[in-house]
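Thread: Newbie trying to understand structure tokens

Hi all, I'm a second-year student working on a class project, and my supervisor (Dr. K.) asked me to get a predicted structure for one chain before our next meeting. I've only ever worked with sequences, so writing a 3D structure as a token string is new to me. If someone could post the tokens and maybe explain what I'm looking at, I'd be very grateful. Here's the chain:
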Amino acid sequence: MKVYAAIDLHSNNSVLGVVNEAGELLHERRYPNELPVIVEALQKYGKDLVGVVVESTYNWYWLVDGLQAAGYKVHLANTVAIKKYDGLKYSGDFTDAAHLAQLLRLGILPHGYICPPERRVVRDLARRERAEPRRAGEVRGGIAGHRAHDQNALEAEIDPAAALGDALAEADEQKWRGDADRAAKHRQRNRPESDRSIRHIRICLSESQFAHTARRWPARRRR
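---
Reply by user tm_fold:
Sure, no problem. This is what the structure looks like when written as tokens:
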């Protein structure tokens, strides 16, 4: 009998739900986020396991990659496109996992794109650009740099997560430098009124007019 599994993924644990082709719930349990433990829980279903749904969260890379390496057909659920459970009185991690498994069984699961590991650095930088428009220039620079060195990174077998961390650290450093420059310009614009007035006089008046005005300036300030 065919079975369908789904994993509701969290930061430090995952809830596994398994249903059969009749829609009956066969298994539901919470597991720690340890790949060997999750793989062992799936192994007992053998070839009857049609596929495994993984919820698309911020930390799905390790789980999807590990399950694919173990030989399972993995489906990434597009949680944004999944309509929530209208009519259900209760919902939680266990019902979420079972619901994803039922969607896979019925063939109506909205799928997300499983980006290849070697392309995730650039994609994550592009997402960061959209999320932080004010830092778009910094992120575009990081994207261009990673595209230029992409082949070298693959040949050197650089860890994509480490490469992303380096790129984000570089973007943070650029942001710090930009903030320092903006602060300096702000101080320049907000100098004391007397300093800005003297600078304006020097620009607008001739040398003789400036000399005449400068002699009268202290008296004006005392008033």
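A couple of things are worth pointing out once you decode it. The chain has three domains: 3-106, 117-189, 194-222. The first helix runs from residue 35 to 43. Feel free to ask follow-ups in this thread.
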